[in-house]
Predict the structure.
Amino acid sequence: MATTQVTPTRMELTRLKKKLTTAVRGHKLLKDKRDELMRQFLDLVRENMDLRLKVEEGIRAANKNFVIAKSGMSEQILNTALMAPKQAVFLEVESKNVMSVDIPKLEYKTRTADENDAYSYGFAYTSSDLDSAVKSLADILPDMLKLAETEKACQLMSAEIEKTRRRVNALEHVTIPETQESIKYITMKLDENERSTQIRLMKVKDMVLEDAHGYKEKEDLRYYEEV
């Protein structure tokens, strides 16, 4: 018996068959999309782990150099050296579509192309450890942006995978079985109605033949009586 109330008509049967064909095709496409998303997601996760290790190592090295620089310089000189930066970074956010997921693409530009502008102080009163710390942060900046990009991409793709998985399960375990059950129910009812109609027609035919045969016998008997 169908799980939902349906009208057992041929028009409804045609509509449900078209719905079933669309659902089966959509189920296959969504499964392919889910598998491809999962493959790309795993690649991003591995890339994200490598970038995180690299960024954490760079930050540790920069912090170490800053601690060493602070131990060899007065706090006032260190604060004064870093107070007015000469370089500026401008971040541009774009997006690229991967399997219907808009993944952010981060690009940055510096105000000047000179790498020495990262040092906003003179070298007379500062130590080389401060230079190493600033250089470490400047070198790790592209990897930090790439890490932010991949982590956001992982979040978006994870949400899309979950949404696609729910759709696949809904089609596989709800929509397709219910539609198949409704088609089976309508087909059964139509066959039953057709058999009932045939039986009624056969009975009507038998009744007509019986009436016609009995009427003929009565006419023959009246003829012999008159003779």
